[in-house]
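Reader question, answered in our methods column.
A reader sent in the components of a multi-part assembly and asked whether the whole thing could be modeled at once rather than chain by chain. We filled in our standard form and ran it. Here is what they sent:
COMPLEX SIZE: two components
ENTRIES:
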Amino acid sequence: DVELQEIQRLEGHMDRVWGLAWNPVYPMLASCSGDKTVRVWQQNPGKKTDSWECKAILEDTHTRTVRSCAWSPCGKLLATASFDATTAIWKNVGDDFECVSSLEGHENEVKSVSWNSSGSLLATCGRDKSVWIWEVQPGNEFECASVLQGHTQDVKMVQWHPFVDVLVSVSYDNSIKIWAEDGDSDDWHCVQTLNQSSSGHSSTVWALSFNSAGDRMVTCSDDLTLKIWDTSESPTETSSDGYSPWRHLCTISGYHDRTIFSVHWSRDGVIASGAADDAIRLFVESKNDLVDGPSYKMLLKKEKAHNMDVNSVQWNPKETGVLASASDDVTIKIWKLASVS
Amino acid sequence: MVSGLINANPTVYERKERRVRSAPADADEYAVEHIDAQEIFDILCCGSRIPYVFIICFLSMTWVLKTTVHAFLSVISITISNHVRDIKDPEHPYSLEELKVVTEDAIDVDDEQSHVRVTFTPTVEHCSMATVIGLCIRVKLMRSLPSRYKVDIRLAPGSHATEAAVNKQLNDKERIAAALENPNLLDMVDDCLAPTFA
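And here is the structure of the entire assembly that came back:
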């Protein structure tokens, strides 16, 4: 038996906390909020409890809600996407963070930002229905490489594949789109759309996450389900006969009764979901029943994880079993998945 | 100027007699606050005069103010609708109660589960104010109810031409949050929610 133990509660934001990002290299956690600020929390190694403390408040740059944040793979740059239509790039200089660049181009709210695996590309998306790909140039310059149109409603989240330069976007139009670069023309285009006719979602898709091997993806939706997708084939292998390289594997339904806002797949295969019912749920693949293909079972449900909606759940990439969650109740919580005898 | 009312002759209903609330005998300030449909209804439907801002919104249908209102609406992701009870119909000097846009029967409260669902009925099928009415209902409840409550706002089934789209928008909290950061829209909502002293 396992349980999710609350290790620490991080307080300081003045409005709902929308997003979280663990630094992949340094012991830091970034959080962003409706209070227009970003906070960087640092683990204090001197103390027994490994307590997290607020190290920096990134303010006076974004003029509206900061919806999403993401660390570059090297851990030195933090990108923050805001409803003010800009994406800011922050550099860790000594003990402080300095805004070194501001990416403008979206017509209105930017809702998500993601770095590719090498840190050479950045993707953003927003209410203007577009997905932008930015090339990282020397000297903290970012050049727009492509503006991708295709979604018919606002785009909620973008996320790069963990190894290859394939981008996934999810939207209020209920669809999931996969974008890749055409080898010959350097043009980005949509190589596949996963919608209701491909066993996809029937309402807004809020988030997605890949497993550590990159051969599966999970998406979560306002339709109260999580869906697992097989992403082991190269998505650019599409042909005119309608072959779909990425395909639906299974649907996890019957567990959530309000919108699922966040989903994250841990390195060791545990899927965490955060929803509008204030609960955090964990799922693992069920090895018992492989007759009808893979299936997933709920490992545990942490009721009242927060006092209000859970907007983000993120596993610590370095410390196994450590999860962070962010909520409308303005707090962030650090959890530890522990076995109980 | 020719009247541009979307619904020039709405049916106006009697306001319902309120049952008298008895003061709880064991009033304990630390007790969990229990909420029922009547209370939600009271929160939503109190005033009775159409606020100026709703006249503006309504007149958006006419050429006179079309550009002004378009400037308003182009910046927001939300179209427009009514509020709940302290809320007036954008078109008429009647409260939502008198127009039966919101009735007590259409408010479901599950106090134990901390869940409130308000179903509202625009006076006409193509009411362009439907989203704003719904937004005002949501903001009013957000500000009035303890934060533990989950609120769902829905159009009455079959009451509106774009029912599904309006429902989806009204229950997307990210879009609501973004809309409420728009100062013009927030002012409008605040005006609609301001108590009227008739």
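What stands out: Chain B has one domain: 37-193. Residues 130-144 of chain B form the longest helix (15 residues).
Send us your own complexes using the same form.
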